[in-house]
Amino acid sequence: MTTLDVQHLTRQFISTHYPAVNDISLQLEDGEILALVGPSGCGKTTTLRLIAGLEHPDSGLICLNGKTLASDVEFIPPERRGIGLVFQDHALFPHLTVYENIAFGLYRQKPSAVRGTVSEMLRLVDMEMLANRYPYELSGGERQRVALARALAPRPLLLLLDEPFSSLDADLRVEVREQVRGILKSMHTSVIFVTHDQEEALYMGDRLAVFQHGRMEQIGTPEQIFHSPATRFVAEFIGASDFLPGLPVSGGFQTEVGLLSQTVPVNGSKSVEVALRADDVDFELSDSGNAIIVERFFRGPANLYRLRLDSGQVLHAIKDHTVIIPVGERARVYITARHPLMVFQ
Amino acid sequence: MRPRIVVYYLLFFLFLTACAPTPSPQDATPAASQPLSAEETSPSSEGTDEEIAGKLVLYSGRSEPLIQPVIDAFKARYPEVEILLKAGSNSEIANILLEEQKNPQADIFITTELFTVQSLSDQGVFQPYLPAGAEKLPSDFLGANNLWTGLTRRARVIMYNTNLVSPEEAPKSILDLTNPQWKGQVAAAGSTNGSLQAQIATMRQLLGEAATEQWLNGLIANEITFFGGHTDVRKAVGASEFKLGLVNHYYYYLQQAEGSPVGIVFPDQGEGQIGLITNASAAAIVKGAANLTAAQAFMDFLVSPDGQKLFAELNYEYPLLPGVQLREGLQPLKDFRLAEVDISRVAQDFNATFDLMENVGLP
Amino acid sequence: MQLTKSSRLTLPRRSLTRTNPRLIFAAGTVAAFVAIPLIYIFVRAAEADLAAWERLLQARLWLLMGNTLTLVLAVTAGALLTGTGMAWLTERTDLPGRKVFRWMLALPLAIPPYIGAIVHLTLLRPRGGLIPLALEALFGRPVPLPAPVGFWGATFVLTLFTFPYVYLLAGAAFRSLHANLEEASRTLGRTPWQTFWGVTLPAMQPGLMAGTLLVALDILAEYGTVALLRYETFSSAIFIQLSGRYDRSAASILSGVLVCIAVFFLWLELRFRGRARFTQMESSWRPAPLTLLGYWRLPALLTVLLVVSASLLVPLAALLTWSIQALQDSQTLTGAFRTGSQGFGNYVWNSLWTATLAAAIAVLLSLPIAIYSVRHAGRSSLIISRLCQVGYAIPGVVIALSLVMLINRGLPFLYATSFVIVIAYVLRHMPQAVRSSESAFHQLSPAIEDAARTLGRTPLQTFFQVTLRLILPGLLAGGALVFLTSLKELPATLLLRPAGFDTLAVRAWIWATDGYYLQAAPAALLLVLAAILPLSFLLRREKVFR
User: Are B172 and B208 members of one domain?
Assistant: First the structure.
């Protein structure tokens, strides 16, 4: 059953030249986690606010469980949508304690029911000991969990998370997002969450929607997005591809690092770009090579090398963490990918 | 702030509010004057009129300390009348009267100088009434069609600091104030002051436009310090800050009562000089007064011997009603040669006077 | 251009198209109400004939304008310097006794400047002042001393009694400043001094500008005190037109000039302030550490003591002495403690209720203005917000006359009730309420309100359950400021009060203006006492949700 249905959603601010959200359509399944990912200013947060009812769409349709939330003629205010939102800066009420913050959305229920729900939420986010603290007495991770508990307490039909982990430091982020994913999955909540961090999106999302300039470039499972990016932008943004120019020849593409044997239907004989990720490329030291090793980044389990081909084109290649090759040496670069590569015209 | 302190605070002001003393009609005279009063002006002379009651709204250009005792005495006679006073500067009250002409609030207007009442009666603010006994007043001090009634006279004098100036040195004419001898040593009220305005208007009539202008220019050239009001002038002279002050005569007596070393000159008494310039305070009933009977009774009281005596006592003023005793120590006006002016003509020329003051740039 | 740019940067997610029409209507209504004196000035000025215009445009007027502008400049600079300096010393250093000084530096706000001027004149007037006399007795010859008269005297006295505006706002800014900001600057190689000028002051700029503007507009309309201190300003030209000639048209034309200057000041402030920043107190907020004064402790303490003495202790001591003298003489006492129809308690009560009501109304009216200008920043909302502040520069007498005329024409039954006084207070002191409310809204992240909406609250519920709770300290501060200034308001009160209606300020003035300082003192002293409670709101607002 479809939970959320968004059709041709568009929103234009007066002060910008292109729409912040431009003709977005997406569906969300029951219990699914959808990650909206894209660089900052790509319209993902506005999309979230439109769904929450904090912005009015210029056009388009938003339905939740078959009920129209926003259309050209209808607009249900946020308080009647049953959609929870976790804000980027958490937006905890500074004048209320943790307990009161979580109970804030439960004001229509009986006191005993409120107590039960709040305790349950506190337990869920492991904050039972801190119920009487004020927000300013909490650490970043704790605040983030309170914000989540507050949004979950009224049992929203849909939960929206706006860059929920951006204010946490890296170690905490990994830990908290595992916890959050666990909590969300255990409650079988439908979730849309916004992030600019592709790794986070790949980890958290059952599906990903990649945004750029207010448009949705692609929507699909993490694997689909990663393996078959629909556009050059998606390939670049997810998995940090380099783009190597190539000419279609019979049996593949001729590139600076040799023939790529792969048959992809292309238009005529115009030059193309082949998307190459670091694991698709390898190199070996060679004085007569076609590239120079510019830089090495130590990535823990692996070493990432930046290579500059003689044409000036930059490629990245990954090698085992034990393999350390001095920077500045010449090398011969070749493609090792055993799966089909994406080719863009 | 702890709640307890807030409570104390509120209690304190509540207490102040609650302990409002019941107004007693007795002595509220300023420190400067001797106790006098309601007792002296006993309600014996006339019987209490039963019909005179209700609210009486009084607008006064006379300052409150100088009118309140009169009100108290009136109230002693007519206890049923509740008098509401609004005292302020002459010109501000006059502006208010003009603005509220269509919705008049005041019953009576009391002013400190004639030209204000003259100007307002020209603009139709007042209604005619001749108070009982007013026919004894000099006819100069009754408005045309009885639109206003004069109350007291005040003289323009020079006061000097006796520590700095000997009686012989003191200038004998206001024209002497332009003498370089007094450069930077003279204090006067500025051009917003009604008494000064009236004096200049009078001088225009006596000396002519050119001579008055010359005099004003002389004052400015002589670096006279102009104040907002005469109280500041008398205090400054009393404190030896200035040698001379151009004031109304009672300011000298008020300053003297504070114990300051001050002397007084009633100027321009010599042959060929213009004589002592005087002005008068006045009262009028506002057109549309809500409580006409009380207003008329109040006007009657103002010109009655009791009322006139109060003015004399309170503020060393010269009552217009003949035969009222002056305050002790005050030289009677009949000792002086007074400047002779046609008040109604002066009032008509008032705009020209203001043009003159603006032209010379009087502060 | 500036305005639209800043609005975009400040609140990128707030739409400009979807402003609630009811809000625009409410803000517009308030603005129209506040514009009443402007309407009067316009109507009256239009009535003036050509001759009046010619008469007004004399050379002297420009001289007076010069006088006013230099005074405004000098007092504003003085207040800015004193206010910021005192705020820094009491908020950011280990100055001994700073907690007490915080109160003492704010209290001069409760002393009417003309009372302060009288006290300083009594003490310091050339030759006849108490201090020159004492020194003369001591040394056997006159000792040259600066006198509180003329330009420098007026600057001195007015600075003493207006710097608390800057002090309060600068103090609040110092207190809410991020420690991180200054620390970042230090790590980037700036000295503490460079940091103060380069980082701290710019960060405080909105607060400082607001305080400075209040001072500037206040001085623009000032009349009584400068007249007492023998300095002639532009407003005296207005008074000359009103006195004798009763020429309200000419006075209106001249007031219009003041309004133009006020508009210019407001525009200047906008230019200087540039892009408003979003200054929410974030969770990572941490108070900046105190600067240790070291050797400078004593000089700093003496400086603060000097300011506190001149602006508070000396006037208070004088008022206390006079009050005690008044208490010893029964006749003086009765004079001081009653008026014709009403007793002392009555005018204490009048003062309190009119000022309280005015404060409440002003804050209430400032809400739609503040919401509109902060949450829907744009050209029209900024214009409305600033329009509400122009009235501060109009002399109280002109505001009073405008109310007399308009109420008599429109609502005659309301005229001559004490409610008119309340209206005048609201009109005159609206800028203070608008400023405080705006800064309160600026400090509140819109996300907090959005959160309440997504948790099931209607806009109205959100306002009462969340917004109001959080901005209340700011609103109280604004209300306290309006209360304080209304308490000591004089020119409009004198003209508008129904006959028989007195306030503390009126009582103090009525006696003081005729030179009876003993009788004036008790009422003036009570004014200061009455100011203590509202001041506590002003001083404590930032502590509430830390």
Answer: yes
Tokens at C103, concatenated: 């109160």
* In-domain check, residue B190: yes
Over residues C91-119, the mean pLDDT reads 87
Q: Which of C344, C495, C519 sits opposite B96 (nearest CB)?
A: C495
A248 vs A266, A270, A277, CA distance in Å? 8, 7, 20
Contact A15 C4 (CB under 8 A): yes
Chain C contact for B164 (CB, 8 A cutoff): no
Count interface pairs B-C at CB distance under 8 A: 225
The DSSP code for C468 is: H
Question: Are 3 or more Cβ–Cβ pairs between A and C shorter than 8 Å?
Answer: yes
Q: Which helix (H) or strand (E) holds B211?
A: helix B209-221
Tens-digit pLDDT profile for residues C401-449: 888 888 887 888 888 788 889 999 998 888 888 888 888 887 788 888 8
Asked if B143 and B286 sit in the same domain, the reply is yes
Cα separation, C278 vs C442, in Å, equals 6
- Closest residue in A to C4 (Cα) is A15
Interface test with B, best of C114, C246, C483 (most B CBs within 10 A): C246
Residue pair A98/A138 in contact by the 8 Å Cβ criterion: yes
Partner A contacted by C330 (CB < 8 A):
no
Chains near B (3 or more Cβ pairs under 8 Å): C
Instruction: Give residue A304's Cα distance to chain centre.
Output: 23
- Among C17, C282, C458, select the one facing A79 at the smallest CB separation: C458
Domain count, chain B: 2
Q: Is C21 on the interface with A (CB under 8 A)?
A: no
Domain of residue B305 covers 45-153+280-332
Mean pLDDT in residue range A224-240: 84
Question: For A253-298, how does the pLDDT look when each residue is reduced to its tens digit (9 = 90+)?
Answer: 778 877 777 766 666 677 888 888 888 888 888 888 888 888 888 8
Contacts of B187 in chain C (CB under 8 A): none
User: From CA A107, how far away is CA A117, in angstroms rounded?
Assistant: 12
Mutate: best of B8, B241, B351, partner C, most C CBs <10 A: B241
**Residue numbers in A near C15 (CB within 8 A):** 13-14, 55-56
- Over the stretch C515-541, which tens digit does the pLDDT of each residue have? 788 888 888 888 888 888 788 777 765
Closest CA to B202 of B155, B234, B160: B155
Across A97-101, A184-188, C15-19, C272-276, least confident range: C15-19
Say how far apart CA C126 and CA C393 lie, in whole Å.
Answer: 32
Q: Which residues of A touch C464 (CB under 8 A)?
A: none
pLDDT, one tens digit per residue, over B103-136 is 888 999 999 888 888 888 888 999 999 998 888 8
One domain for residues B120 and B209: no
Contact C332 B232 (CB under 8 A): no
Nearest chain C alpha carbon to A158: C454
**Test the C interface: residue of B12, B29, B84, B114 with most C CBs within 10 Å:** B84
List pLDDT tens digits, range C107-130: 898 888 888 998 998 888 877 778
Residue A306: φ, ψ to 5°: -105, 130
* CATH number of the CATH domain containing B53: 3.40.190.10
Question: Dihedrals φ, ψ of A207, to 5°?
Answer: -135, 160
Are B83 and B125 in the same domain?
yes
**C192-211, pLDDT tens digit by residue?**
777 777 777 777 777 788 88
Q: Are the C-beta atoms of residues A86 and A101 closer than 8 Å to each other?
A: no
* Closest alpha carbon within chain B to C240: B192
DSSP secondary-structure letter at B104? -
Lookup result for tokens 């000032």: C222
Are residue B139 and residue B191 in the same domain, yes or no? no
CB of A344 closer than 8 Å to CB of A275: yes
